[in-house]
Design goal:
Elements lengths: L1 H17 L1 H24 L18 H13 L8 H12 L7 E6 L9 E5 L4 E6 L27 E11 L2 E8 L14 E5 L4 H7 L10 E3 H11 L4 E5 L3 H6 L7
Parallel strand pairs: 1-8, 6-7
Antiparallel strand pairs: 1-2, 2-3, 4-5, 4-8, 5-6
Helix pairs in contact: 1-2, 3-4
Amino acid sequence: MVVYFYHQIKRVMTHLKGGLMKGILSIVKVFLLFMLVTGCAVFRYQVPEDVLRESPVPPLTETRRSEILDMYAVLDWKNPPNQDVFIRAVHGYDYIPKKKEILTLIDFSQPSTEKRAYVIDMEKQEILFNTWVSHGVNSGENIAEHFSNAEGSRKSSLGFYLTGKSYCGENGLSLRLDGLEKGFNDSARVRYIVIHGADYVSQEFIEQEGRLGRSWGCPAFPLSVTKPIIRKIKRGSVVFIYGNDTTYLRNSRYSYQQ
């Protein structure tokens, strides 16, 4: 790869002698090709094994449960998630190191017509955003019922993630996600599962179709709030995607036993 680009650049430099404009255009082509190849290589990587949790999180103590319930009570919910879903989200969040003090909770046990995405400042105990979010086209119609970690499934993946870098793609400003749960979401990068905006995530679409539009597995947000959400949660904040799936709840290493 390095030798190839070396010869390409060498050839471009020769062009510069013959015609400045042609040379510049060739440089641009080489640069774009390089960005495309290396960009895809960076994007399509599997989460390192040492990032994936090997053992279950410790049991939830009564003291911590009480603290989480107190937080649940003081948050200014407009459309609150189920209390147990919130407890699961915070308990898992507690055991993810090197994170920002922000938790994004996506509750796929709610229908897509509900504002089921919550961005929470854990330090200030404040809800920063509460909005709609889409699920994968093969996960269900109005309610997500089927989940997968498989490439090409076009289903949503459950579990805990850490946010990566933002980038501009075909859906505008988007945010890479690193799945932290082996077998449930650790193929997020391979599957190109990212946070992005979509025009099918809107009140207008709900009024026309009776549900939100659906993605190919990505959690898509309304265009009006995608940029501020990404800017707030990018680079190391926790995202938890919940769904009513017994396989996940029984086998996730972040799940607590009631």
